[in-house]
Amino acid sequence: MSRCGNLRLWILGLVLLLCFIQSEERRLKSDHHEHNEGHSNMSASTGVPIVSFKWHHVEPPYLIALWVLVSFLGKLVIEANHHVTTYIPESALLICLGFLLGGMIWGADKVQTFKLTPTVFFFYLLPQIILDSGYAMPNKLFFTNMGGILIHAIIGTCWNAATLGLSLWGCHKGGAMGDIDIGLLQYLLFGSLLAAVDPVAVIAVFEQVHVNEVLFIMVFGESLLNDGVTVVLFNVFDAFVSLGGGAIDAKEIVKGIISFFVVAFGGSLVGFVFGLLISLLTRCTKNIQIIEPGFIFVLGYLAYLTAEMLSLSAILSVMFCGMCCQKYINSNMDERSVQTVRSALKVFANGSETIIFVFLGISAIDKSIWVWNTGFILLTLFFILVYRFIGVFVLTWMMNRFRLVPISLVDQVIMGYGGLRGAVAYGLAVLLDETRIKEKNLMISTTLIVVYFTVIFQGITMKPLVQWLKVKRAALVELSLIEKVQNKVFDHALIAIEDISGQIGHNYMRDKNFEEKWMSWFLLKSSARKKQDRLFNVFHELNLQDAMEYVTEGERRGSLDFIRNENAFVDFKKKFDEDFAEAMPDIMADMGVLSFFIMNARVLNVNKEGDPVPSVSLEMHEQNLRGLRQAEEINAHHLLEQHLYKGRKQHRHKFSRSHFSINQDENEVQEIFQRTMRSRLESFKSGKMAGIENPAFMPDVDPSSPMHIPPWLADAELEVSPVAPSQRAQVRLPWMPGHLHRLSSLRTSPRSGDSVQEGDEQLPPSGSRQTF
Amino acid sequence: MGSSSSSLNNVPDGQQLMQETGFSAAHLLRLYERFKFLDKDNRGHLRSEDFEAVPELSENPIGDRIVGAFFLPGQETVDFSSFVRVLAHFRPTEKNRTRAGAQPDPANSRNRKLKFAFRLYDQDRDGKISRIELLQVLREMLGMQVTEEQLQSIADRAIQEADLDKDDAISFDEFRKSLEKVNIDHKMSIRFLE
Predict the structure, then answer these.
(1) Would the CB atoms of B52 and A707 count as touching at under 8 Å?
(2) Do A746 and A759 meet the contact criterion of CB atoms below 8 Å apart?
């Protein structure tokens, strides 16, 4: 750990340097004006200066850069001590580091020159965190739970604000806090700024505790959406406070309620518009791929600022911007640009988070703001916790009546405990007007205490609590094959039942086709639309690592088995080569690399165990068998993941509900449709054959019936289907339960007047007979 | 949707179906409307062609299988009671609400749902999913690029994983056991519109 020890010394050194610079700066500032003229005179008299110390020149950006560096170094030191971070979340440690640094600066300067100012926080540190959250948000999960999230965000936050304000006021009246000059309205204002769950704190604490995704999205979504409420509440109560108690009447209250809707929906709308803008832009940026990622950052930031300018909810704006554009820019942009965006967003977001926490710590070391009122602070803490839990329990109980999957009690406890307050509350507190609110310092102090309590104490105890309560964790367990297949079967079954019973699915987007038909057409590049085909995604996601494991596995097993299985990959390449080369040059490159790996498996020296060449020996036989099993297992899971048909819900560019047409690019649907039609033909014919003389059957089979066979299908039957030359499943689904029929020769017209030969002897026109 | 009880009289066996399946009157009415819509020739029962008239089913890999589940063994028509009884399997499981006169083992219990799913595979109703039956399902669910051998290997492994008594087939108990971690209620329920 000597390196880290050195790092600590570095940090100390840097901070001392900072202090030194500070004091220097102050000294210099005092003689600045005199020196100004003096300088020019001096230079005239002493000749050309070779080197000069131009501190003022660079001071502002230099300090900023230094602070960023210090924060990052702090994070580095913290993360190096892994055994500490398992118990104490990083955010808490960063705050403590902030205390330390603040103490040092205080010691050097006797005044806190560095603070987390609201401007810096709201304009320069917060937007990228929210943009990153929006961009990385799992949309489907979010919208599925949208109802619950909204209820918690809106009603929960209002409840928190109201109860906190009223309770504190009640206690004040009861004399528990001594003599402070705060009226009811100011209490409500205070309540409103402390009511909101903070997204930064939630991310920081929850990312180390991997709870199940529904729980996470409920808390996280709430923390993001409640900004709409917080902004409104804060502004409304601020206005009330300045108006004074007498001017509040029903009209003002109504205006307050209306402003909520305007702020919330307006903010979302602004974000949505900017998201569309980004998607549109990325459609045309093929030639400037090098700075393509820049658009996301600039436009995201503009979304934030625009909403702020229009006094709408900026957090909602930038969040919806990110959520709206993620799908489109991921498809439109080049893979490298997508990577860049993802990584850069993470850098900015994480960096901001670090800086925020460090400065939260530093801001505390400032004698001027501290007013200690035991009653006030303790009561605030108490009420916050209690009302949070009450709110969560009541609201969730109500919600569970309507949810398909109710939220368990344990999850509710975690939701309540996860109501963390953070820097947003502090920022709002500093924004208070001290002329109107005499006890601003008391409020700031209390807010800081609350933030520290939630982030540090609740952060530390969150993980043990989760473990103790046995909260359902994020599912990491590998499903068995049957489970995977069955999950898909369920998906398809649900879709089928929905179609049969005429339901519109319980999916979040009712008119999915609007999105697919219009928005995708509008916002996606044509090549990107093709790329969206599931089959391509399969290859796109094919992990090279996966292939490498397969390769090394094969090596260990021995070369022979390897050759045999090579066919699997080669088939894929052949199939896709002709059809789609132009749409996916990079995928072809991947494939090329894959085949390179496979062909050269024996030559590869990158074997992890260090065996240069797989040896062929007698005992390999045993290993072969075992390895064969393992490879089979890898193979089977792999195949399933790759080739299971996705249901309609996951399909893009699907058909409208009212009529059906074929999208030429949709291989999968083509296949399924072919197969279904073939089997129906089959069973119809066998039904005829079995002599079911139901007159109802005959007239149904004419070209105008719903069972219309498009001409291409009929043609395709006779020739070798290019799709699957080697396997037509011979066993048809028995349409009439109990009958099993082989594939018989098919005619162009489904309506055949004469008898059809039973297909036992005949070979299907495609070629060799396949048997089980 | 208007007064339920008077229109419920038009629904054949309306009251009894409500009791049996747990659908509310409004649900039942809506399903009856749908049934009548599908029954284009107004016969009072549905045949396979009526189901085929639903266009989206032909794009569903197991669409025909689901339709087949509506038909009782040996029957070629589906009357409204059977229609509703099958759909009842997909109702969400209600946990604590007890209805007066509710069935001891309602159609949407976890067990019944699993049985329904099991029967999707086990077409010959012999109580086991044989290798062949599993292969059929896999064939339908997987894309055409999957070769016959790969299918076989997948089916082999699947049976291996689930088959406890080594009879090379999956019985209902084994099926249920292999799915014990899956939230069947969540995965196999849809909220029926009123």
Answers:
(1) yes
(2) no
Q: Residue B152: left (phi > 0), alpha (psi -120 to 50), or beta?
A: alpha
Chain A nearest-CA distance from B50, in A, is 9
In chain B, which residues have their Cβ closer than 8 Å to the Cβ of A491?
Answer: 187
Alpha carbons A366 and A113: distance in angstroms, whole number:
9
pLDDT more than 90, % of chain A: 17
Look at A568 and B150 and tell me if their CB atoms are within 8 Å: yes
Contact A669, A723 (CB under 8 A): no
Distance CA B109, CA B117 (A): 12
Q: What are A513-553's pLDDT values in tens digits?
A: 555 666 666 767 666 555 544 433 444 444 444 556 566 77
Verify whether the Cβ–Cβ distance B76 to A692 is below 8 Å: yes
pLDDT the model gives residue A545: 46
The amino acid at A161: A
Nearest partner of A159 among A454, A373, A419, A446, judged by Cα: A419
Q: Which domains, from first to last, does chain A contain?
A: 118-469 (1.20.1530.20)
Note whether A652 and A528 are within 8 A (CB). Answer: no
Q: Is residue A197 a contact partner of residue A391, using CB atoms and an 8 Å limit?
A: no
Contact, A540 vs A587, CB < 8 A? yes
**CA-to-CA distance for A657 and A324, rounded, in angstroms?**
24
pLDDT of residue A13: 66
Separation of first and last alpha carbons in chain A: 64
Between CA A324 and CA A322 the distance in angstroms is 6
Whole-number Å distance between alpha carbons of A271 and A265: 10
What is the rounded distance in angstroms from the CA atom of residue A528 to the CA atom of residue A159?
46
Min distance B6 CA to chain A CA atoms (Å): 23
Separation between Cα atoms, residue A408 and residue A128, nearest integer Å: 33
Q: Do A500 and B49 touch (CB under 8 A)?
A: no
Other CB atoms within 10 Å distance of the CB of residue A699: 9
Separation CA B45–CA A694 (nearest Å)? 15
Is the Cβ–Cβ distance between A202 and A420 less than 8 Å? yes
Report whether A200 contacts A426 (CB < 8 A): no
CA dihedral A95, A98, A103, A104 (to 10 degrees): 150
3-state SS of chain B: helix, strand, coil percent to 5?
55, 5, 40
What's the whole-model pTM score? 0.60
Q: Which helix (H) or strand (E) holds B171?
A: strand B169-171
> Does the CA dihedral A76-A81-A86-A91 come out positive or negative?
negative
- CB nearest A645 (choices: B51, B120, B143): B143
Q: How far is CA B94 from the centre of its chain?
A: 18
Spatial contact of A320 and A277, defined as CB atoms under 8 Å apart:
no
Which domains are seen in chain B, by residue range? 14-91 (1.10.238.10), 108-183 (1.10.238.10)
pLDDT digits (tens, 9 = 90+) for B10-52: 777 778 888 888 888 888 888 888 888 888 888 888 888 888 8
Residues of A in contact with B137 (CB under 8 A): 485, 489
Check CB contact under 8 Å for A568 and B147: yes
- Who's near A1: CB < 8 A, 6+ residues apart? A80
pLDDT tens string B153-187: 888 888 888 888 888 888 888 888 888 877 787 77
Give the CA count within 13 Å in the CB-facing half-sphere of B105: 6
DSSP of A161-222, one letter per residue?
HHHHHHHHHHHHHTTTT-S----HHHHHHHHHHHHSPPHHHHHHHHTTS-B-HHHHHHHHHH
* Residue A700 scores a pLDDT above 50: no
